[in-house]
């Protein structure tokens, strides 16, 4: 059976993707795996916002996004981050194509809470046929974490959440949430496996805090909706912490 693998990488990852990363991608492709990349871009967005004097405000770890903020986010993700990633893939002889919410209704979403977060959304529909069409052409889709609402409003989406939604709709076998640490750490040691019960215990005792919480919640959501294994790690060459039921 053909394996489907979704990989979420950070916005700064374009400069950090190693030869080993691309070798792993190529090896998976030789085994007929189908791969999707979902990229973030927080640092690029913040930098561009600062240059354009757009206030940066985060609420519960989510970037408050005005209409102007959406325009800047699109500029950063679609004008800077995605082209750099596509070029990195090209230089490493992996055929890739950049996609976004406007590509044949790829990602449809709804506003989370406009009063609290502005134009921040959650994805409720993925055009999986478009992704399958790209796979048939032996292309790796590189997808920006943006959605469009039913009434045409562009929405900013957390990249972990976007990758999780795409993995769920594709019924992916593996989801890699790449981060800057090699897994979930407890007392200085990386957990090899994390179940929902263990995750709740670690959150309740404040051992898991900050940005790792939404990442783990995304991972748990994915496995509960049929993704076989979710890896929280800093590289595709290392399994990191495997979140499983």
Q: What is the element string, with H for helices and E for strands? A: EHEHEEHEEHEHEEEHEEEEHHEE
CATH topology term = Carbamate kinase
Extended strand count: 16
CATH architecture verdict: 3-Layer(aba) Sandwich
The unreliable regions are none
Q: Please tally the helical runs, counting DSSP H or I stretches of 4 or more residues.
A: 8
User: Which class best fits the helix and strand makeup?
Assistant: alpha/beta
Helix content: 25-40%
First-to-last CA distance: 22 Å
Protein name: Acetylglutamate kinase
GO molecular function: acetylglutamate kinase activity; ATP binding
Pfam families: AA_kinase (PF00696)
Pathway: Amino-acid biosynthesis; L-arginine biosynthesis; N(2)-acetyl-L-ornithine from L-glutamate: step 2/4
Explain what you see.
The longest helix is centred in the first third of the chain and has 25 residues, at 67-91. The protein contains 8 helices and 16 strands. An 8-stranded mixed sheet has the order 5-8-2-1-11-15-16-14, sandwiched between helices. The model has no long low-confidence stretch (mean pLDDT 93). α1 links the parallel β1 (4-9) and β2 (34-39). 38% of the residues lie in helices and 24% in strands. With 245 residues, the protein is an alpha/beta fold.
